[in-house]
């Protein structure tokens, strides 16, 4: 790839820079044109963030890399070089010449990863400093590391990153190796092959690299062409375009600002389908955010995509803010459970009820499979009319407020009913879920793991409530909130009180607790 003027360090309309963690990743390639291969690393299934996914080598800027606030691109390039060396053992051509001896290289990599000096195996803060001195002493240490594009984490996650992707052609004599731990392996693959494996459901990709790999595939391995596409997309997002990511094949997610419950600040609008797209929970009330959504949908329709209709998971206000606007502008029918349709805002747009188990046509799946569809599942407990939608090819579940990857779900009686909610989770767990896309938070690639975690959390909270009743005798609800939800932030204690009421209601229905009608509760022993 020809050397180009470096991509300027620029702010982004998606968030103030101080709210983003500066980071870098490396597009390590070998070969040219149709034979171009990209090196991807396989993240361990045990990791909390993006387990069992394939990604680019990379990580967060460290103080040894420099101060990113100064706007110096070399800070990000040094971060990229360090992370690449730590994760794969590959050094840039200039640094490789300086390191020389393989034994020294291995010792340096080990000490940098472990943060310890090889003299005695005891951690020393000198290892990063030694690395920084080495990099600064080699004039061409950053040789070959060329800025490719910027990325930013969508605002559905509390921890967000501003990353510079840099390109490096594999230096002569270098060969990546993975030391098992956070990473399980790595491999060079052609972008087209990675894409086909992703569409076939054989591998999972971290969302930030999906567009990158698609650009490389579309360009036939032409790095300059792919770079222009990635830069254009990145610049549009930084100027304030709707930030849309594709966590799984055939589904895109756009977090929209809504009046929701902390720690969430957004609700995910989920676009399901390829040539025939259903719009799930267009939620925002914000006029600018709504305009961005409408512009994106107009762009989709202009590209030949059919907007099939609007689906609503339930009637809560942080899910319905733009339902009417989207339906009116594009002439779409709004579909939801009958209980939800009754409670949606007034409007002249067509409404149509969805029944439990109904199949909603999606056309042809991303891998060419026929009879692709969504199956609607009635999942009350959080809300009487709550629906989730499971797509048929990959098992992805568009989950609404059944679960969240940010926090627990509030069960607020009388409409909220804890026993029913647990049954709904168990029902979806029995549907062999793939990834889960909640309304709040990022995708959970292991959906069953997320659902099991929610069931485990409810069991633990119930055990804590039973202990409080056992140890405290007759207790007021206020006293119980203080002991059972002692981990709840002060500002969320009112919501905790509603969740407590749901837990007490469940115990009373099961004959394990009894209220006196005046707000005091006792354990039923027996």
Automatic annotation (TrEMBL):
Give the Gene Ontology MF terms in alphabetical order.
hydroxyacylglutathione hydrolase activity
According to its UniProt record, this protein's enzyme class is hydrolase
Question: In the UniProt record, does the keyword Hydrolase occur?
Answer: yes
* InterPro entries, per the entry: LACTB2_WH, Metallo-B-lactamas, NUDIX_hydrolase-like_dom_sf, NUDIX_hydrolase_dom, RibonucZ/Hydroxyglut_hydro, Sec-metab_biosynth-thioest, WH-like_DNA-bd_sf
- Identify the Pfam families for this entry: Lactamase_B (PF00753), NUDIX (PF00293), WHD_BLACT (PF17778)
Listed SMART domains: Lactamase_B
Domain Nudix hydrolase positions = 19-212
Cross-referenced Gene3D superfamilies: Nucleoside Triphosphate Pyrophosphohydrolase (3.90.79.10), Ribonuclease Z/Hydroxyacylglutathione hydrolase-like (3.60.15.10), Winged helix-like DNA-binding domain superfamily/Winged helix DNA-binding domain (1.10.10.10)
| Entry EC number(s) | 3.1.2.6
Task: List UniProt keywords, sorted A-Z.
Answer: Hydrolase
Under the heading PANTHER family, the entry gives: ENDORIBONUCLEASE LACTB2
Name the chain's protein.
Answer: Hydroxyacylglutathione hydrolase
Organism of origin: Engelhardtia mirabilis
List the gene name. Answer: gloB_1
């Amino acid at each position: 790839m020809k050397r180009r003027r470096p991509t300027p360090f620029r702010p982004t309309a998606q968030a103030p820079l101080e709210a983003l963690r500066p980071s870098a990743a490396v597009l390590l390639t070998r070969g040219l044109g149709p034979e171009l291969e990209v090196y991807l690393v396989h993240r361990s299934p045990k990791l909390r963030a993006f387990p069992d996914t394939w990604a680019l080598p990379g990580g967060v800027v460290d103080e040894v890399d420099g101060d990113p606030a100064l706007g110096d691109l070399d800070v990000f390039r040094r971060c990229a070089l360090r992370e690449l060396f730590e994760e794969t053992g590959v050094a840039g051509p200039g640094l490789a010449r300086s390191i020389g001896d393989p034994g020294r290289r291995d010792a340096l990599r080990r000490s940098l990863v472990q943060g310890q000096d090889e003299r005695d195996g005891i951690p020393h803060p000198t290892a990063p400093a030694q690395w920084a001195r080495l990099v600064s002493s080699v004039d061409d240490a950053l040789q070959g590391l060329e800025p490719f594009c910027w990325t930013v984490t969508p605002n559905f996650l509390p921890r967000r990153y501003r990353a510079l992707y840099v390109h490096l052609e594999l230096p002569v004599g270098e060969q990546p190796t993975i030391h098992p731990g956070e990473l399980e392996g790595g491999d060079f693959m052609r972008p087209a092959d990675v894409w086909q494996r992703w569409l076939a459901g054989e591998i999972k990709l971290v969302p930030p690299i999906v567009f990158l790999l698609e650009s490389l595939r579309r360009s036939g391995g032409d790095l300059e062409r792919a770079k222009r596409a990635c830069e254009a997309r990145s610049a549009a997002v930084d100027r304030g375009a709707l930030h849309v990511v594709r966590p799984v094949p055939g589904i895109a997610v756009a977090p929209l600002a809504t009046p929701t419950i902390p720690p969430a600040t957004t609700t995910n609008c989920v676009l399901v389908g390829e040539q025939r797209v259903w719009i799930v929970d267009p939620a925002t009330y914000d006029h600018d955010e709504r305009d961005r959504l409408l512009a994106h949908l107009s762009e989709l329709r202009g590209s030949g995509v059919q907007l099939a209709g609007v689906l609503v998971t339930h009637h809560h206000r942080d899910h319905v803010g733009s339902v009417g606007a989207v339906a009116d502008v594009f002439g779409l029918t709004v579909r939801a459970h009958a209980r939800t349709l009754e409670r949606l805002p007034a409007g002249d747009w067509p409404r149509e009820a969805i029944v439990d188990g109904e199949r909603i046509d999606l056309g042809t799946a991303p891998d060419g499979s026929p009879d692709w569809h969504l199956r609607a599942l009635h999942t009350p407990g959080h809300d009487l009319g709550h629906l989730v939608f499971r797509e048929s090819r990959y098992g992805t579940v568009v989950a609404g407020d059944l679960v969240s990857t940010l926090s627990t779900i509030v069960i607020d009686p009388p409409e909220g009913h804890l026993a029913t909610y647990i049954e709904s989770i168990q029902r979806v767990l029995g549907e062999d879920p793939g990834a889960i896309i909640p309304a709040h938070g990022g995708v959970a690639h292991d959906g069953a793991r997320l659902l099991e975690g929610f069931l485990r959390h409810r069991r633990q909270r119930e055990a804590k409530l039973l202990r409080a009743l056992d140890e405290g005798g007759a207790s007021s609800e206020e006293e119980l909130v203080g002991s059972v939800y002692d981990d709840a932030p002060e500002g969320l204690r009112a919501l905790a009180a509603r969740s407590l009421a749901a837990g007490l209601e469940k115990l009373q229905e099961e004959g394990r607790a009894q209220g006196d009608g005046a707000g005091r509760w006792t354990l039923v022993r027996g």
